[in-house]
């Protein structure tokens, strides 16, 4: 919800003050005409009352800011009211709305000084009007002035605090929006980097190996060399299709046309000299698209590592459906390692990308490797129970 503008209370108070002013002014005019009919000062009192009313109406037009015109207006209003009170002391009660007008127009200290002067003038006028000493006439105006000032100052402080709070909320909202945009950008960059690494980069690596193998056997075994070239051409076509799907943010090409994860895993390869075997364990259940895409990308990345780093001759993919989770194991008979490899040329993005994919799905990624005995990579992703 959007907080209410902090000026609403101030506007309400101003409306009440304006209404009270005209009611008091009208009541004072009526009282004077009833008690002093036909006096020589009557035309002056009426003229000054009309002038004061017209001047007061100009106030909202000039705004609340303490500009020169606003200060001149306030001076004219106060002067007209003072002359009117001198002629007819009963107009002194119009000072109460003028208190709020002064407080809204002047800085706090100047406004308090003016309110004090107006209050003293009201007390003097009322004491002159009274034929005998009346404590109420001495104490009531200062009490009313103090109450009006306290109420106005309190509301102004609340309005300032509310404006500051709204400003903080707006700044916080902007900062959160900027943070979300940055996080979205970083997440999209990470997603694209993983997709490019697991698809285009691996396809290019496979093509390079096949073309190098074709170049080595071109003279001695032309048939095998041409087979390598044809295989590289097929991989290039797959890479082109994958690039187009990546641009349109579609599912992996191996999962297109309704193909399941198991069928997609059966089609994977790791190079001309590595045999890839696939095993399916458990009763297959429908998997969410995100899970299928992640496991397929993990398998592609793992086979790319097998091809580039392991020196293996055989790799085994095992997809296991265990009821509450699905597990993908990739094992090879290569030379293994003690720590994940990170090349000096900036490579080594595969394992972090796999961990990121699994973490996004709430799963776990484990790697077991012993030098000389191969490597086993296992990705386990929990599944939501069937309704």
Mean pLDDT: 79
Report the radius of gyration as a whole number of Å: 44 Å
The third-level CATH topology of the domain at 259-387 is: Heat Shock Protein 90
Strand order of the largest sheet: 1-2-3-5-4
Distance between the amino and carboxyl termini: 36 Å
**Helicity level, as a percent range?**
55-70%
Characterize the structure shown.
This protein has helices spanning 7-35, 42-62, 68-87, 95-105, 108-129, 135-217, 222-247, 261-266, 289-310, 350-360; strands at 275-281, 314-321, 325-332, 364-369, 375-382. The radius of gyration is 44 Å and the shape is rod-shaped. Among the domains are: 7-129, no CATH class; 259-387, 2-Layer Sandwich (Heat Shock Protein 90). Residues 1-6 and 341-347 have low confidence and may be disordered. The chain is 65% helix and 10% strand. Strand 4 and strand 5 (375-382) form a beta hairpin. The longest helix is centred in the middle third of the chain and has 83 residues, at 135-217. It is built from ten helices and five strands. The chain has a five-stranded mixed sheet. It has 387 residues and is of the alpha+beta class.
